[in-house]
Specification:
alpha/beta; Isopropylmalate Dehydrogenase; twelve-stranded mixed beta sheet; 2 domains
């Protein structure tokens, strides 16, 4: 990390048929992004030029072969052309195999350079899971792809928005399957992984509150026994391992408590439990950080927005915030690794 401690952040375009290329161009028009990061775009020229046409302003692209060649100054976008085939017939706002393959290629190339320590972090624009599958990509989503590409078995998603930080135990699965995931072993293991992530960020004493699964925390078994039989024992096991874990605490209170400063982070047991809390607070600035990787990865927490793709109206607040937070957490990792 150099150039005034501005981390070099690889920015992947996401699905080129979605809003990813547009919001990347908009985000990189904000001067303050360059004050905190050196953003390098991973994508295809055709995708960026199509997005520029949608915005009514052709982008000035500075093509580089290696990250060290970039200038990283606002006004011209430093760009590594991944060179995906089959994008000439790309259609805005549709699930397409070629778009799924291209989106994965952007991430794959960025990961290669992150592992080679040529970039410090990755900020990803949204992908489409169906397009990935149609394109023959053997990964469900960004997180599973990153875990396998880096051989990282202990990845975890952490949302950050304002003072609120939320870790997730179960995510992309049915509600029924998520309830089945609520076991002592899973609660304990997830708390340990969350604690390790916070230690890497320089917070070894951070407190983590666990959201309850049932209404009112189960009311001593009246509304379900998961809190008694699985969650509380998982919390106690984590505490025995040195984690400052607390709970279970009713989910309708615990996120507010974290905002008020009572806890440093919250463990959400399933996808919507934490998503609703974060996105209600500030939808656009809710950013996902993938922990447990050799490097920082951040992402907007919205989808490809196929319904408005190519219209030039997608907001870029989240994309700009994602790049800024990738730089922030990369600096934290660097400082605490020293």
């Amino acid at each position: 990390m150099s150039d005034g401690d501005r981390p070099l952040v690889g920015v992947t375009l996401g699905d080129p048929a979605g809003v990813g290329p547009e919001i990347v161009l908009k985000a990189l028009a904000e001067p303050d992004v360059y004050e905190q990061a050196r953003p390098l775009v991973f994508g295809d020229r055709v995708a960026l030029e199509r997005a520029g046409a949608a915005l009514g302003r052709p982008p000035e692209l500075r093509t580089v072969d290696r990250p060290a060649e970039g200038r990283y100054r606002v006004g011209a976008i430093d760009f590594l052309d991944v060179g995906s085939p089959d994008l000439d017939e790309l259609t805005w706002g549709r699930v397409q195999p070629a778009a799924g393959r291209a989106a994965f290629r952007y991430v794959e190339r960025a990961v290669q350079l992150a592992l080679a320590e040529e970039i410090d972090a990755i900020a990803t624009a949204p992908i489409n899971k169906e397009a990935l599958q149609l394109g023959g990509v053997p990964h469900l989503d960004h997180t599973t792809a990153l875990a396998r590409l880096t051989n990282s078995p202990d990845t975890l998603t952490m949302f950050t928005v304002g003072r609120l930080r939320i870790f997730f135990m179960a995510r992309h699965m049915s509600m029924r399957a998520a309830c089945d995931e609520v076991t002592t072993e899973n609660v304990h293991a997830t708390l340990v992984k969350a604690h390790k992530a916070l230690v890497r960020f320089g917070e070894p004493g951070a407190s983590i509150a666990v959201a309850a699964l049932n209404p009112h925390g189960g009311e001593h078994g009246m509304f379900g026994r998961e809190e008694i039989d699985e969650i509380a024992p998982g919390v106690e096991r984590a505490r025995a391992d040195g984690v400052d874990a607390h709970g279970p605490i009713p989910a309708d209170a615990v996120f507010h408590q974290c905002l008020q400063g009572r806890w440093d982070a919250v463990l959400s047991l399933h996808h919507d439990q934490g998503h609703i809390a974060a996105k209600t607070l500030d939808f656009e600035r809710t950013i996902a950080i993938t922990t447990g990787l050799p490097f920082i990865r951040s992402s907007v927490d919205h989808g490809t927005a196929f319904d408005i793709a190519g219209q030039g109206i997608a907001g870029a607040t989240g994309m700009a915030e994602s790049i800024r937070l990738a730089a922030k957490y990369a600096r934290l990792l660097d400082a605490n690794a020293a």
